Amino acid sequence: MYEALDRMSSQIAGAPTGTEHVRRQNIALILRSLRTEGPATRTELARRTGLAKATVGTIVGDLRAGRAVSEDESVSSGRGRPGRPVTLTGESIIGLGFEVNVDYIAAVALDLAGTVKLIETRPVTAGHPPDIEQLVGVACEIRDSLIADGHTVVGATIAVPGLVSHDNRTVVWAPNLGWDDVKLASDLEDAFRDPCPTTIDNDANCAALAEASHGISTDSASSLYLTGTVGIGAGIIEDGRLLRGGSGFAGEVGHMPIGDPTSVCGCGRLGCWEASIGLRAMLRGVGMSEHETPVKTATAVAARAERDQGVRDALEDLGRDLGTGIATLATVLNPEVIVLGGYFVPLGEYVVPAAGRVLEERLPSAAMHLPEIRLSSLGIHAAALGAAEGALAGVYAGNVPV
């Protein structure tokens, strides 16, 4: 998980040098050990990390004072001095993640131990994607409330449905939001009253990270996550790392020219895949209207499908179009697992069987691994959760103090 976040953490400004740099790296080493390997005594931490016992003792003392770790003083190792397990608590240290999409703004606050402290969705006016001022207002409101409750917000990451520049600071192109060349990280940092390192990432990348670390694909090192919103994007995990491509734009699968050649996409072109399987394409097929969020919309469609054969038939058609694209991606990327997120989740029983049949039929060889199609376990907040993990990346990389 931490390897997959390396690029995001490396973009955080103000990285220390010299003695302070070494100290932060040592702190990060201990925090990573506690997060990935669980509680340990100071002696065990020294063995795990290769640090001197005195260094571990000093760092643990500082982390206890900052409420990042606790020590269980009731546990004894038998003869001699008691061994007191150090546990990562991190309750006061928060990474803040947001997803801004066409229909909603989602927020997740995650503490250093990986515990969700806040989860929230704010619907926006139908037909009017959120503007930058609306996102800034929500972000500042939520951050201020966390600080007022005694938390330290060490960073924020914003997940967006579009292309993000290689420095993770600028939204290059998000057609469904109408954003081009938006300096979003700087806008948010200027709005926050106190320093708060802020980065931007693609929503599918963030959701893929969340599923790999918290969700349905934790057992796989090779997975493909597909968003299910107005737009369709992919997050690609290989050997536990995100694949980003030469310019950082890998995963824009919604614009593959494999959809209905007469359908107009939000990008202005004809025949994009998302123009055939995106949320609004699905709604046109079933003849229903949109609700506050993609998941609420799909839940209403699933309820109608229980009693309406026409809706079931339309969803089966959608599943076949979904399967065509999945088969194309599986042939190129050969993932072990394909995770469907967003609006696909409530409609899984109606679209996955048809998609799976097309996938199996269109793989070029029986020798190829047939990926398992799974439904996201994280719901609409997957991208915001992955963004919150990204916001903590600077701490675990030693670039942000705790």
Task: Describe, in plain words, how this protein is organized in 3D.
The protein has 402 residues and is an alpha/beta fold. The chain has three domains: 6-88, Arc Repressor Mutant, subunit A; 93-206 and 382-396, Nucleotidyltransferase, domain 5; 218-377, Nucleotidyltransferase, domain 5 (2-Layer Sandwich), CATH 3.30.420.40. 40% of the residues lie in helices and 18% in strands. It is built from 13 helices and 15 strands. The protein has helices at 6-10, 18-37, 42-49, 53-65, 132-148, 184-191, 203-214, 274-277, 279-286, 294-305, 309-333, 348-362, 382-396; strands at residues 69-71, 86-88, 93-100, 104-111, 116-123, 152-160, 163-164, 171-174, 179-182, 198-202, 222-226, 234-238, 241-242, 337-340, 372-375. The strands form four sheets. The chain has a five-stranded mixed beta sheet with strand order 5-4-3-6-10. It has a five-stranded mixed beta sheet with strand order 13-12-11-14-15, sandwiched between helices. Helix 12 (348-362) links the parallel strand 14 (337-340) and strand 15. Helix 7 (203-214) packs across helix 13 (382-396). The radius of gyration is 22 Å and the shape is globular.
What distinguishing features does this structure have?
Nucleotidyltransferase, domain 5; globular; alpha/beta; 402 residues; five-stranded mixed sheet; 3 domains; Arc Repressor Mutant, subunit A
